[in-house]
Amino acid sequence: MVFIAGTPGVGKTTIGKHLARTLKAKFLDLPEYVKQEKLYTRYDRARRAYVVDERRLKKRLSKFLELIEGDIVIATHLLVPLNKSGVRVIVLRLNPLALLSRLKRRNYTQNKLFENVEAEFLGVTCHEAVELYGMRRVKQIDTTGLDVGRTVRKCVLIIKNRSKGDDIDWMRSLRGEELDKLLKIFASLR
Ligand SMILES: Nc1ncnc2c1ncn2[C@@H]1O[C@H](COP(=O)(O)OP(=O)(O)O)[C@@H](O)[C@H]1O
Ligand SMILES: [Mg+2]
């Protein structure tokens, strides 16, 4: 069972689908599943998002995973604590400025836009994944400048234990002007 995780917009759904096809595994898009199964408590109009009922989601997903045969790839922003031994997490990362221009094409409020860019900059999803599943099970891929095929191949190498993935720290690796631009964006929020 592989979680394809990361900030909204990094490409989880796109990569997850292709990876599942390559692995001949099933594919589940968790946000879609949450909507279909109505696993939310309410719709937050200000944030334009459903508030996920995490307790019910965990229960329902655990049951669902017991029933299916074979491997499954799950694309998700939200990490679910599952008691399954074979869980792997691949966190997709993307240069926060590239993420910003990708997210601008979505119907996001400015707050939500910047919130996500900030989360990517800090690596929030990766921290959460490591907290839940431990360093050994969590790997990252810097997808900046990679096409879908290359990213999927990197996922496969990680799953086959032939790659340790990428080390990502945007604070260190961004160019000076990129960092300046980002910090200005964050400051404008306060
Ligand atoms: N290398 C890439 N990997 C994944 N998505 C990409 C890539 N390059 C461009 N994209 C585009 O970025 C968007 C990613 O959206 P999506 O897969 O829904 O992300 P998420 O599920 O993480 O929110 C899609 O429109 C996709 O076509
Ligand atoms: Mg998605």
Percentage of residues in strands = 15-25%
SSE sequence, one letter per element: EHEHEEHEEHHHEHHH
CATH class reads Alpha Beta
Helix content: 40-55%
- Classify the fold: give the CATH topology: Rossmann fold
Q: Characterize the largest beta sheet: strand count, sense, and whether it forms a barrel.
A: 5 strands, parallel
Number of helices: 9
Instruction: Give the strand line-up of the largest sheet.
Output: 2-5-1-6-7
Describe this structure in words.
The protein has helices at residues 12-23, 30-36, 54-67, 96-103, 110-122, 124-133, 148-159, 170-173, 176-188; strands at 2-5, 26-29, 40-44, 49-52, 72-76, 88-93, 138-142. It is of the alpha/beta class and 190 residues long. The chain has one domain (2-188): Rossmann fold (3-Layer(aba) Sandwich), CATH 3.40.50.300. The strands form two sheets. Strands 2-5-1-6-7 form a five-stranded parallel beta sheet, sandwiched between helices. It has a two-stranded antiparallel ribbon with strand order 3-4. β3 and β4 form a beta hairpin. The site of magnesium ion has 5 residues, from α1. The site of magnesium ion (MG) has 5 residues, from α1.
